[in-house]
Write a structure and sequence with these properties.
about 200 residues, alpha/beta, Rossmann fold, about 30% helix, globular
Length: about 200
């Protein structure tokens, strides 16, 4: 069982995750001209908190995650609310190729877990229809204290360097803004703030 499989059942009990998803959803709507004919992909969707906050904005949402536990919880939530346009998908895009096309791809707090960011951005570009959008929410560069010892992912991102990677992958109209701050108390009782960016871009028509 993966770390995220183990956390899936209790994920939605964390009020921070709920609040963050609502704030991020509003920020995405403020930076991208969404419309209700869009087909969306949330990559690394977890329990789909972000997509539930955005569900009225799209015609269809594919919820892709490589955690079976997260996908099962998402399926149960969708079934309980009788939502037909949200479609959970257990799939590992890092190691497999997907061929469907979307008008928008978005995620939050996912990219710092992706090993090969350049390849993933190229995959995102190929999955988008011409004129489609991408929205990435993640940590600004941090000192490693967010996850602590033993974490093998990225310690946040230099948003300007990540913007350049998007441009190299073919994206245009690259923009970013700070959208949320996660506050955590350290061992000494001090509260540390970890700001998140929203980075958006468009695939040329």
């Amino acid at each position: 069982m993966s770390e995220f499989d183990a956390k899936a059942r209790d994920w939605d009990k964390n009020q921070l995750y709920i609040e963050r998803s609502e704030v991020v959803a509003n920020a995405i709507q403020g930076m991208i001209p969404l419309h209700k004919n869009m087909k969306a992909l949330e990559y690394g969707s977890g329990t789909a908190l972000l997509s539930f906050a955005l569900k009225d904005q799209f015609a269809e949402i594919t919820l892709m995650d490589s955690s079976r536990g997260m996908t099962e919880v998402t399926q149960e939530k969708i079934a309980a609310q009788h939502i037909r346009k949200m479609k959970p998908l257990f799939f590992d895009l890092e190691h497999e190729n997907y061929t469907a096309k979307f008008d928008i791809i978005y995620n939050q707090m996912v990219m710092h877990h992706v090993n090969d960011v350049d390849t993933m951005l190229t995959k995102f570009f190929s999955l988008l229809n011409p004129g489609g959008y991408i929205a990435l929410v993640d940590l600004y560069s941090e000192d490693g204290s967010f996850h602590g010892e033993g974490f093998n992912g990225h310690l946040g991102f230099d948003v300007e360097l990540l913007s350049d990677k998007l441009k190299e992958a073919g994206f245009r109209k690259v923009e970013h803004q700070q959208c949320f701050t996660i506050e955590r108390k350290d061992e000494d009782g001090r509260i540390n703030g970890y700001p998140l960016f929203l980075l958006t871009a468009c695939k040329p028509k």
